[in-house]
Design brief:
Elements (H helix, E strand, L loop, with lengths): L10 H33 L19 H16 L4 E2 L11 H5 L2 E6 L9 E6 L3 H16 L1 H4 L7 E7 L2 E7 L9 H8 L4 E2 L5
Antiparallel strand pairs: 1-2, 2-3, 3-5, 4-5, 4-6
C-alpha cells in the first residue's frame, strides 16, 4: 500500500476493516463469555446467593410464620427472654433455597448484646420441601465455603417446624450477653432438629 502524500495512511484502507473486525470479535467474545458464565451459575443446584438484608417479613409469608413466632415467644419466655421485631435489617448467609424462600426475621432481646439474637424463619410449600431446604442449609453452613462466613466457634441451631425452617447462629466468643446460650437452647426446643455437619 502506498502512503498518502501527507505521510498518513488512508484511514479506511489501513485501519477501518481491521478495527471493525476487532470490535465485532471482542463484542462476540464478551457475549459468549457472559452467556456461558450465566449458564454455569444457573445450572448449579448449590449456588449461594446473597440478597440484601431486609426489615420485616418478606412477601409470601403466611400464618405458618406467625405460628412459629408464637412458639418462639413461648419457648423464649420459658427461659426468661422476650422476642421482638428487629430494628435493623438482618440476613444470615443462606443456601440458594433459603435465599429464595419467603422469610421473616425476629430478634431475641439481649440487653448486653443488642446487635445479636436474630432468628430467621423461612416458609415453604410443604413439609417435604422444608426438609430438603433445611438439609441444604445444613450442608452449606457445614461446608468449607459456608463455614468461613461465620466466626470459627460458631454454633448453629437449625430446626424444621412444619412447613418452616428456623435458623439461629451464634458465637460464644463474640456474644457479649451470656443469655445468648439460652436463646439457642430455647430455639432448639422447636420442631425437629436438622443436624449441621462439623
Amino acid at each position: 500500500m502506498i502512503a498518502a502524500a501527507d505521510g498518513a495512511f488512508p484511514p479506511r484502507s489501513r485501519f477501518g476493516a481491521p478495527r471493525r473486525a476487532a470490535t465485532l470479535f471482542g463484542s462476540a467474545a464478551l457475549v459468549v463469555a457472559l452467556t456461558t458464565s450465566c449458564g454455569i451459575a444457573a445450572s448449579s443446584p448449590r449456588q449461594v446467593t446473597f440478597p440484601p438484608a431486609s426489615l420485616g417479613p418478606s412477601p409470601g409469608t403466611t400464618g405458618a410464620v406467625s405460628q412459629v413466632r408464637g412458639e418462639l415467644v413461648r419457648v423464649l419466655g420459658a427461659h426468661g427472654l422476650q422476642l421482638d421485631d428487629p430494628r435493623v435489617p438482618f440476613r444470615p448467609p443462606e443456601s440458594a433455597r433459603l435465599a429464595a424462600a419467603p422469610r421473616a426475621v425476629f430478634q431475641a432481646i439481649l440487653p448486653g448484646d443488642p446487635n445479636h439474637g436474630f432468628i430467621s424463619v423461612y416458609e415453604f410449600r410443604d413439609e417435604a420441601e422444608a426438609a430438603e431446604a433445611g438439609h441444604e442449609q445444613a450442608a452449606f453452613v457445614g461446608s468449607g465455603p459456608g463455614r468461613v462466613l461465620f466466626p470459627p466457634d460458631v454454633r448453629f441451631v437449625l430446626r424444621q417446624v412444619g412447613t418452616t425452617v428456623v435458623f439461629f447462629a451464634w458465637s460464644p466468643e463474640n456474644s457479649a450477653d451470656p443469655r445468648t446460650a439460652d436463646v439457642a437452647a430455647a430455639v432448639a426446643e422447636l420442631g425437629v432438629e436438622i443436624p449441621v455437619p462439623r
